[in-house]
Amino acid sequence: MTLTEERQLLEKIKENPEFFGQIFDSYYKNIFNYIFHRITDYDISRDIASDTFLKAYLKINTFTWRNISISTWLYRIATNEINYYFRKNKVAALSLELLGSQAIRLFEFDDYQTEKQLIEDELKLNEDFVRVQSSLKKLDIKYQEALSLRFFEKKSLKDISEILDKKEGTIKSLLSRGLEKLKEKFISAT
């Protein structure tokens, strides 16, 4: 969605909130994936994604257009929700290795179970990803945010700068230092 299309959609939403569904449909998958890469728990990630979109829905009429995409705004909300989750629970993120061992009985829709199983199966297939993710969780939150946005979400420096509300030079520094620290943690874990 282009910035012009987003701006037009915002005007439609102010007249009829039902148009918010277009934002949800356009951005849910990317926001969920970002949250999942940070939290590494499927169910908690879905809850945080729901909270992110609920907050966006409740605040959409106060959203002031400043040529910053709705996507950036949603990533900011998601980042704040993730940080709130960690502060509230005062726990480190779960290792992806634990994700597959969770014994959860689900009495929900089949598509939910199928989606969850597909994600868990994919994660089991990639042991290196698990090791990298485990090492990433040991870094300071500022490095986790920048690295996750850059490498999991494929965001540009400009986008990351807008999402985290930091200068591009700071983002470059966070990425460089974060990669160094990640490499150290990854090597020491092997």
Explain this structure to me?
The structure is a single chain. This protein has 190 residues and is an all-alpha fold. The chain has a domain at 1-93: RNA polymerase sigma factor, region 2, helix turn helix motif (Rna Polymerase Sigma Factor, Chain: A), CATH 1.10.1740. It is 76% helix and 0% strand. It has helices at 3-15, 20-39, 42-59, 70-89, 96-101, 110-125, 127-136, 141-152, 157-164, 168-189. α2 packs across α4 and α4 crosses α9. It is globular, with a radius of gyration of 18 Å.
Query: CATH homologous superfamily of the domain at 1-93 - what is it?
Result: RNA polymerase sigma factor, region 2, helix turn helix motif
The top level CATH class name of the domain at 1-93: Mainly Alpha
Biggest sheet overview: none
Q: Which word captures the global form?
A: globular
Number of helices: 10
> Span between N and C termini?
42 Å
Helix content: over 70%
How much of the sequence lies in strands comes to: under 5%
Q: Please, what is the average pLDDT?
A: 82
Low-confidence stretches: 92-110
Radius of gyration: 18 Å
CATH architecture of the domain at 1-93: Orthogonal Bundle
